[in-house]
Every structure is written in C-alpha cells, then in structure tokens.
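Changelog note: in this version the structure field was regenerated for every chain. One regenerated record is shown below for reference.
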Amino acid sequence: MSSEEYREEDRPVAVEVREEVLRVTLADGRVIETPMAWYPALEAATPAQRAHVVLLVDGVHWPDIDEYLSVNGMLAGIRPVHPRRQKVA
C-alpha cells in the first residue's frame, strides 16, 4: 500500500512501550493496545532502543532493532509473524 491509501485519522501520533502492552495513539484519539509478547524484538530491546521510535504515516518504526508495525495490522489485531532466526555455525 502506498501512503496515499492511509487515512489521516489513522496516523500514529504517540507510542508508549509498557512492560505488558504497546500503546499507540492515533490522530483521531483512538488508542490501540497490543501485547508486548507479540513483539519479541521490542520486548528484548533496551530502553534507549525503545525510545528511538519513528512515527510514520502508516505505522511505527524502531530503527535500532529494525522493527516496523503497521497501524492497519494493529487495528485488525494481526499478530506479526517473526521468522525464527537460524543459528550461524
């Protein structure tokens, strides 16, 4: 999807990472809460990595850990699929 397909009211304006939940506030005042257990990389991140967040028109990105979450996915209750990391021999 291109950024033109996203509605202004769905734009994230604030993010709060709590111990148990991720809270994303949208431009129209709605708040999405999803379990932190859905995001292993974010859950394992340091406070500094969690604090370095970029709000995009269609989602939220933590560049230090390469984690991107789409607002559409969160609104739909879609749990992100994280491929298992293969061990390097």
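Spot check on this record: The CA atoms of residues 51 and 62 lie 8 Å apart. The first strand starts at residue 12 and ends at 17.
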